[in-house]
Sequence to fold (254 residues):
Amino acid sequence: MTTPEDGLAPPPVRRKRVQGGAATADVVLSAHAGGNAELFPRILALHVPDGATIADVTYGQGVFWRQVPPDRYRLLASDLSTGTDCRALPHADGAIDALVLDPPYMEGLLRPKAETRGGQGSHAALRTFYDAGGGREGPGGGRWHQAVLDLYLDAAREARRVLRDHGILIVKCQDEVSANRQELTHVQIVTGLAAMGFYARDLFVLMRPNRPGIARLLRQVHARKNHSYFLVFQKVPEGGEVARYRTRDLPQRG
Ligand SMILES: C[S@@+](CC[C@H](N)C(=O)[O-])C[C@H]1O[C@@H](n2cnc3c(N)ncnc32)[C@H](O)[C@@H]1O
Fold:
């Protein structure tokens, strides 16, 4: 310890830290049992400021938006089924505050043979792309899962272009077992997007409340998945380091 007699400057006075805030149990939790329509508005409320311009580029039936107050955000909805591919968006560079991405997450939706394919009808253009050789052979021969992942990554690259700096990207996904291989899609997306300059700001687990019915089961090898994810990313500006980035509010537009 220094004293005035040492001839050294006295140590700086440490201010006592005052804790603010009020005690509450009313917080947004990371795991939910229920549906997309209940959880999605809470994710928006936590991560996207009111009045933000949000592009939902795989709008589908608009289930995500069913419980979002219509005047809270400026929604720009598009989908492949209405002519807009999420990998080639009509928005200008940096024009969007937040973007929502929820493409088909199962390789079964992309299978070429109609009799083994899931999700009949709504993903025809995507299947055509991969049937025509657009798909690539992935690790472990997971061509079809690789097709799923490629779509996420290509769409995220386009999201990065249209998002402003520090903009929010919300990705819905689910892991899958494909060709007898465990594919942790959410990990692959976090890793792939980090390499692109996206910081993983939050992660939500959504658990289906009902038990899935199994038509034919010979021997169970992997756990049957009854959960999916919402991943929330933030765009790290060009030249910034994802590993050093810290969560921050979206700055006001000037
Ligand atoms: C799981 S659904 C989305 C559901 C939606 N989030 C909702 O709340 O209703 C997947 C959607 O992705 C769309 N889609 C598939 N490939 C696409 C692409 N390349 N670009 C844009 N949308 C695509 C499909 O048409 C489908 O509507």
